[in-house]
Design brief:
By secondary structure, this protein is mostly helical. The protein folds into 2 domains: 87 residues, DNA polymerase, domain 1, CATH 1.10.150; 181 residues, Intergrase catalytic core (hpI Integrase, Chain A, Orthogonal Bundle), CATH 1.10.443.10. 55% of the residues lie in helices and 5% in strands. It is built from 13 helices and 5 strands. A 3-stranded antiparallel beta sheet has the order 3-4-5. Strands 1-2 form a two-stranded antiparallel sheet. Strand 3 and strand 4 form a beta hairpin. Helix 6 packs across helix 10. It is elongated.
Length: 303
């Protein structure tokens, strides 16, 4: 069997059987293709996914470990393990060659967060008069940043948010998360107001047929890409001179951290973030504890 046909079958399995998002599937694909590239560069013959050995994969991991972080290595090992698990499941192989390969130990990586002052500074830097090709995009950008922070959205959830998902009268929006799982997230009046302003501006755009129900659009009337959201945020961070690495996910982390610091229930935060397991949400308790340690070390007389 060829790599290409098995990868295609694996994609269908991940999408249809496991309900994974396109982003997750693309990451799996990227990791497998990195292995294929290594094989093409280092072997004179075609190494089949059916016959590849544990030793070959170990050598691949050793080679890439020189240039990649432990976290990236662990992700690649996990992706390959899932791929070969699928091949075993479908009886293409008897064993998984990645099973005995250990992932590098990872320390606890706390998410980067912004202070409330940081967020206020970024939002204040948005030029509400900014127009491109006759379309006011300043109000759109402000609604985007506010939605990321006030609702704790993933970037893919933001770009796929629909007008029909807005239930302002009830004070909620419907969010489609990983695995197409839906959840309802509260949305504040101030963010609702910003979205309503954008909706009025949006009426002036010639919207593409496939984006009629998509909330946030570019000036051409097409759905915004993830890359465009990253670009909007990058320019704002540079504008205010903030010396932090800020991505759309930073606003999501800040949303959860600020809720926890102000006494919100961890279970409620889990539901709003759309985490399948409470253990995923519990990482924010470590952030809160580190903040408590900082308070003790700064203010306690016997620190």
């Amino acid at each position: 069997m060829k790599w290409s046909s098995l990868i295609t079958d694996f994609e269908h399995f991940l999408r249809l059987e496991r309900g994974l998002s396109d982003n997750t599937i693309n990451n799996y694909n990227y990791d497998i293709k990195r292995l294929i590239s290594y094989l093409n560069d280092n072997y004179n013959h075609i190494v089949s996914p059916i016959d590849i050995s544990q030793g070959t994969i170990q050598q691949f991991i050793y080679t890439i470990s020189k240039d990649l972080s432990a976290r990236t290595q662990a992700r690649i090992i996990s992706g390959l393990r899932n791929f070969f698990d699928y091949l075993v499941f479908e009886n293409y192989r008897e064993t998984n060659p990645v099973d005995q390969i250990e992932s590098p130990r990872l320390g606890l990586k706390l998410p980067d967060t912004l202070s409330i002052e940081d967020i206020d500074q970024i939002i204040a830097a948005i030029d509400l008069n900014y127009q491109f090709r006759g379309v006011n995009l300043g109000h759109r950008n402000k609604a985007i940043i506010e939605s990321l922070y006030s609702c704790g959205l993933r970037v893919s959830e933001l770009t796929h948010l629909k007008i029909s998902d807005l239930f302002f009268q009830e004070g909620f929006i419907k969010v489609t998360g990983k695995g197409n799982k839906e959840r309802f997230v509260p949305i504040g009046k101030s963010t609702q107001k910003l979205i309503k302003i954008w909706l009025d501006i949006r009426k002036q755009i010639d919207v593409a047929s496939e984006a009629k129900d998509i909330l946030f659009l570019n000036y051409k009337g097409n759905q915004l890409t993830r890359a465009m959201i990253f670009t909007i945020i990058k320019k704002l961070v540079e504008k205010v001179g903030l010396k932090k690495t800020v991505s759309p996910h930073t606003f999501r982390h800040s949303f959860a951290t600020h809720l926890l610091e102000n006494g919100a229930d961890l279970r409620a935060i889990q539901m709003m973030l759309g985490h399948e397991s409470i253990t995923t949400t519990e990482i924010y308790t470590h952030i809160d504890k580190s903040q408590l340690n900082k308070v003790i070390n700064t203010f306690h007389p016997r620190k």
